[in-house]
Amino acid sequence: MRALVTQPGVTGSTRVADVPDATGDGVLVRMLEVGVCGTDREISHGLFGVAPENESELVLGHEALGTVERDGHGFTRGDLVTATVRRSCRHCLACSEGFPDSCLTGDYVERGITRLNGFACELVVEDPAQLVAIPRSLGRLGVLAEPTSICERALRHARAIGNRHPWELQRALVLGAGAVGTLSTYLLRLAGLEVWTASLEPSNDLVTASGARYVSLPGTQLSELGGFDLVVEAAGDAQLMADTLGLLRRSGVACLLGIDPLEQRVELDGRTLALDAILENRVLFGSVNAAREDWLAAVADLDRARERWPDELEQFVSLRVPLDRFEDAFAHQGGKATLVISD
Ligand code: BGC
User: Whole-angstrom Cα distance, residue 241 to residue 305?
Assistant: First the structure.
């Protein structure tokens, strides 16, 4: 079968290749579409990713939407499904309790990223316990479940941290308006918060349609917007990440989601760190991946968002191309790109 493969560590090695058919126990899933994100681009640039044991190439793709091929394991032929990305290391407390997103060893595997082939291929055999049902009403928007699960996990953790003491989550700032920033904006608007979203473009209709306020970063002093209870960094800029601590108000929580792999030093004002953060009980934390409960929340909230903002949700994926046009998808800026494998 055809698959999008890459040789981790080797820049420019990504190609469409013939790979052996899917075998083994589990649910046979025909892949419809996979989303492309910054992690796929990094792997393709040779900066990240590990091939499965004893193999030199890795099948890419971790934002999956597929359809079940035959009845069984509680699924019916034709059911729409997605699947989790990270799988248990099998020897830590967090993984044994069903939270590989909080793995304590780093020995986990991740579909399409670390030691486990991904979903950018025609057929996959998947463990039924790792599948997540996509409601018919969501249809092709189900391809957004994975990035949404990342946002759900971040917001669940932010709330857990904030709720360690009496706290009111009212004003949120989202930095970055890529898929994760925009989906975070939509989730926070669904929860009824006052949301400000900042990015580089002069304007952003998807953001403003959700009822959030859009801030064009060049020329804006973020500190002039007033303090926030929650700041989500989804721009992947280490300096912006350090700045988030200074944008919080009392008991505020800053969550880092974007990744910035550059070797660099960033500046942090001494009084922000050593005075305000302490006297105002502020927290800065990072979040990766998602637990099953976040996937279920993601699917439910995406469907609620679709009901409330149907036209906007349809615009989330701004480029859909077949597998062999993966270079266009990887080069695409200004919205989510997906690879269509089957109609
Ligand atoms: C994926 C996560 C994964 C992380 C680190 C992200 O792009 O969405 O599921 O845990 O990369 O590999």
Answer: 28
